[in-house]
Design goal:
Oligomer: single chain
Number of domains: 2
Structural class: mainly alpha
Helix content: over 70%
Distance between the termini: 18 Å
Number of helices: 18
Shape: globular
Strand content: under 5%
Length: 436
């Protein structure tokens, strides 16, 4: 069967396999090392670090300018002008990597002028945004379906810094050193990407920035920037709001729960990337088209429900096994937060349909609806229920963005109905049979 594959398809599958290995290794090791770090730091200090990471992440999407997918498209369609495209994108992201960190530091100085440790952490982590400019090389490798190079470069940095973080725990290092380690990983990853690019025959000295090309890229990327900002708001704002409403300890418990429940979020992306071509090819056959989409939704619901049930029922044992007794308050938060995976899985599964129907703008509106719902729910629930309130707000807002928003547009209403049907026992059984 493998021998019958075309060279192009073999290249795509090989590239996808490398990306999957990267995600699995990273998420598994990150959970392992993250647990070690959290146990050492304790609930409060881990909460301070988690807040700083989330606060800087709110600015991170703006620093990248949403250029990745846009640049990939231009590199594929205008290969002869690759040096001009790469040079312009790199220059734009360098500017973003300088200006946005300054904005993040200025913002935290206004919000928390007396909190010296938080100011230090945000300042250190913001410096890491500068190195995101070098992901321009990663974008080039994506356009060439050569993500193996990126995996080698970034995983080398990741593994080295994972060892450094473990050393810091044994050395009883101060809190700020763990933020510095995160920035070190970004810097080493950037160096690795540049080395890989040079090794593959690329020459950065040939890159050229053009003003008209910069205008073109920004004009095309601004919707992506807005969507990315909305995603960051409704995925990170809960930690920020929890910090100001309930304090660092509540953030520590919440962050502990989310690290466990979110470790599964790579699963739908991996599955969808494999089945998306089959769904898109069936567009001209409506019956087969929606049958395949329905089966994908059912499969996603089945996997999410199995994961959610298993983690919710064993949340106390999981937290007790991984962390110290000081983190026991994270168990009920984990039991609730894990159910957001159902809506995440269904939302990701809708991706091929969005592409084939050319309705990508709806992603922004759905994400914006989820962000607004998350902020409003956090305002109501966090003062009453602390970290549990943030978990409840997350589940509901993910439900709004991933499923409920589809009910309010005639074009997406059929998808909404398929998503609802996907959780029915009969459809779950069909999804189970389709795995055999």
């Amino acid at each position: 069967m493998i021998g019958q594959l075309t060279p192009g398809l073999r290249k795509i599958l090989h590239n996808t396999a490398w990306l999957m290995v990267d995600r699995i290794v990273r998420m598994g090791l990150e959970l392992f090392v993250g647990v070690w770090v959290a146990r050492y730091l304790g609930v409060t200090q881990f909460g301070i670090l988690s807040f700083a990471v989330s606060f800087v992440a709110l600015f991170g999407t703006t620093a990248t300018l949403g250029l990745d997918s846009i640049v990939v498209k231009h590199l594929v369609t205008e290969a002869a002008h690759s040096n001009e495209i790469l040079g312009t994108a790199f220059t734009l992201r360098l500017l973003g990597g300088v200006v946005v960190p300054l904005l993040a530091v200025a913002a935290i100085h206004v919000i928390e002028p007396e909190d010296e440790i938080t100011l230090l952490l945000v300042t250190l982590l913001s410096a890491g945004l500068f190195f995101q400019a070098f992901d321009t090389v990663d974008v080039y490798f994506q356009s060439q379906v050569q993500s193996k190079a990126t995996v080698w470069a970034k995983n080398a940095a990741f593994l080295l810094v994972a060892g450094i973080r473990i050393f810091l725990v044994h050395a009883k290092a101060p809190l700020w050193s763990f933020a510095a380690a995160q920035v070190t990983e970004l810097a080493l990853g950037a160096l690795g990407l540049m080395a890989m690019y040079r090794w593959r025959g690329g020459q950065v000295s040939m890159w050229r920035a053009r003003r008209w090309r910069a205008v073109q890229l920004i004009q095309q990327s601004w919707p992506v920037i807005l969507t990315g900002m909305a995603i960051m708001v409704y995925s990170r704002i809960d930690v920020v709001m929890l910090k100001f409403m309930q304090g660092d300890a509540a953030v520590g418990l919440y962050a502990t729960a989310t690290k466990i429940s979110e470790v599964w979020y790579f699963v739908p992306a991996a599955i969808v990337s494999s089945v998306a071509p089959a769904i898109i090819r069936a567009k001209d056959n409506p019956t087969l088209y929606y049958e395949r989409i329905g089966r994908l939704f059912s499969l996603m619901s089945l996997i999410a429900l199995v994961i959610g049930s298993g983690i919710a029922l064993s949340s106390r044992w999981i937290v007790h096994f991984l962390y110290t007794d000081a983190f026991r308050g994270a168990a009920p938060v984990l039991a609730v937060h894990v159910w957001a995976s159902l809506f995440v899985f269904l939302g990701v599964a809708q991706g091929p349909w969005n592409v084939s129907q050319n309705l990508l703008k709806l992603v922004f509106y759905r994400t914006l609806a989820g962000a607004i719902a998350n902020v409003l729910l956090n305002l109501v629930l966090i003062p009453r229920y602390s970290a549990m309130g943030a978990a409840i707000a997350t589940v509901i807002s993910y439900g709004v963005a991933g499923v409920l928003a589809n009910a309010f547009d005639a074009r997406t209403r059929p998808i909404f109905l398929l998503q609802l049907k996907s959780v029915l026992p009969g459809n779950l059984f069909k999804a189970h049979k389709s795995l055999q």
